[in-house]
Amino acid sequence: MNAGPSLLELSGVTKTFTRGEETVPVLAGLEFRLAQGETCAIVGPSGSGKSTLLALLGGLEAPTQGSVRFEGTDLYARSEKELARLRNRAFGFLFQAHHLLPQLSALENALVPTLVQGGEALRAEREERARELFGRVGLVARLAHRPGELSGGERARVALVRALVNRPRVLFADEPTGALDARTADELAALLASVHEREGTALVVVTHSERLAARMGRTLALEGGRLVAR
User: Fold this and answer.
1) Closest by alpha carbon to 130, among 118, 154, 113, 145?
2) Which domains, and CATH codes, for the chain?
3) Helices marked H in 13-60 — which ranges?
4) According to the model, what pLDDT value does residue 117 have?
5) Angle of helix 120-136 relative to helix 152-164, nearest 10 degrees?
6) b/e per residue, 158-187, with b = 16+ CB within 10 A?
7) Which of 13, 20, 95, 114 has a CA that sits 20 to 30 A from residue 151's CA?
8) Are 155 and 98 in contact (CB under 8 A)?
């Protein structure tokens, strides 16, 4: 059972997709609660719906049925503009492919989520935070480098700084170590754990890595469209 009040909550969530005339069920009546500051790994075979579940939790994909609540309010009752503002303010996203813009430097990539926030003072504070985060992940010397000049592990760390720059309440990570070698994957896993310990950010990780899952407070398996405790 989760300690503390629910930060994120799924209630009776079902998700289906339509392919031609066929309806394909992916998630079936999910119940899920994430407490403030909690860490959770979601595991399961490829195609089981893990990334779809993460998109539902992160305000990127509306459920077919049921509700997704953040701090007690239905995410998908908001307008698209309100939902986009919430994602930018409260959520951070870390993906296997990193999605860095090739024409921007590491620092500029990290600051992309801050561009929609007004105020010179706030932008200056966010840049100071980005530089502090780059120091914590060991990339101070690489701020001016573009993604093509960075290793896979360095690009992953830039993406992590970008995900954290706006001080999110929840960090969502979709196979964050999947494209990395074992040593670099362990380093990124340690960084994710340190983020939780230092900032109390809630963390939901979709992963095939048992080593990464073992660092989380609890692990759930997605089987047959339902979540099962492990």
Assistant:
1) 113
2) 6-229 (3.40.50.300)
3) 50-57
4) 67
5) 140
6) bbbbbbbbbebbbbbbbbbbebbeeebbbb
7) 114
8) yes
The answer to whether residues 164 and 201 touch, using CB atoms and an 8 Å cutoff, is: yes
Q: What is d(CA 148, CA 150) in angstroms, rounded to the nearest whole number?
A: 6
Quickly count: other Cβ atoms within 10 Å of residue 190's Cβ.
12
Beta bridge partners of 67: 11
Query: How far apart are the C-alpha atoms of 80 and 180, rounded to whole Å?
Result: 34
| Tens-place pLDDT, residues 40-64 | 999 998 888 999 999 999 999 999 9
CB atoms within 10 A of CB 46: 8
Residue pLDDT, tens place only, 77-108: 999 999 999 999 999 999 988 899 999 999 99
Alpha-carbon separation of residue 159 from 74, 100, 101, 169, 173 (angstroms)? 28, 7, 11, 17, 11
How sure is the predictor about 73, in pLDDT bands with cuts at 50, 70 and 90? Answer: very high
